[in-house]
Structure formats: C-alpha cells, structure tokens
Amino acid sequence: MAITLSKLESISRNAAPEFRAYQRRVLESFAAYIREELREQHVKGRSIYGKRYPQPKRGGAPMLDTGTLMTSYEVTVNGDTIYIDNTAYYSDPLQNRDGEHVHKPTGGSGGMPDRWKRKLAQIKETEGKRMMRQLIGA
C-alpha cells in the first residue's frame, strides 16, 4: 500500500489528537476493568493478587459482609493517571494489617497484578489498531 504525500500530511495533522483520544480510551477502558476486578475480589473471596482472604470468625463469605467495602471503590482517570481509592472508613486498616490480604494494588514489590498487566496490554493493542485505522483510513 503506497501512501501519497497528501495522505501523509493528513496523518501528521491528525496524529496528536488521535493519540490523545487513544490514551483516553485506554485509560477509561482499563479503569472500567479495574472497577470490576476490585468488586469481584469480594465476591470470589480472593485478593487481586489471588490470595484467599481469611474466613471470618462469624462465618459468611470472606470480605463480603455488608457489601459496603465492595461498593466504595472510586476509580478515576485524571489526565494520564488512574487513581484508586476506597471511601469505606475501614479500607486503609484492611490494606495495611498484614501486608498479605490487600484489597487495592500496592506499590513496591506488589505492584499491579499480572493479569491486570495482560489486560492493559490487550486494551492497548485493540485501541492501537483502532487508532491506526483512524489515521490511515483503512
């Protein structure tokens, strides 16, 4: 496929806005995935890193009592960053209690779970192909 000079000029004019749109779509899609993953860990009883939450002494499903913690996550996109917070008043003690039963991603050695990295790569690939179609007009 040969690209004409006018087509190349069109691509260069549209590249920056299309790349910003690509970034926004990637971040929004990944944020939606994160929201679901954070909610699902409470349903499955496993942390985002795959560790089983301890069984509550009073019975019931681990990490699923009132559902307050599960529905209190705020995943927001601001610029080129995704922020994860939990508005439940007891969310920080849960994350820091023993370092093993975290319910939000940790910095340092924990970082982003591997399946999240794979999902982000898949989203980037899909959106990258979409961006190229938009730029080239295929």
Structural notes for this entry:
It is a single chain. This protein has 138 residues and is mainly alpha-helical. 50% of the residues lie in helices and 9% in strands. The protein is built from three helices and two strands, in the order αββαα. The protein has helices spanning 5-44, 91-96, 114-136, and strands spanning 73-78, 81-86. A hairpin with a 2-residue loop joins β1 (73-78) and β2 (81-86). The longest helix has 40 residues, at 5-44. The model has no long low-confidence stretch (mean pLDDT 79).
Describe the SSE topology.
Elements: H1 5-44, E1 73-78, E2 81-86, H2 91-96, H3 114-136
Antiparallel strand pairs: 1-2
Helix pairs in contact: 1-3
Uncertain residue segments = none
Cα-atom radius of gyration: 20 Å
The 3D shape can be described as elongated
Our measurement of the CA-to-CA distance between the termini, rounded to an integer number of angstroms, reads: 11 Å
- Bin the helical content: 40-55%
Overall strand count:
2
Number of helices: 3
Question: Key terms for this structure?
Answer:
50% helix, elongated, 9% strand, 138 residues, mainly alpha, two-stranded antiparallel ribbon
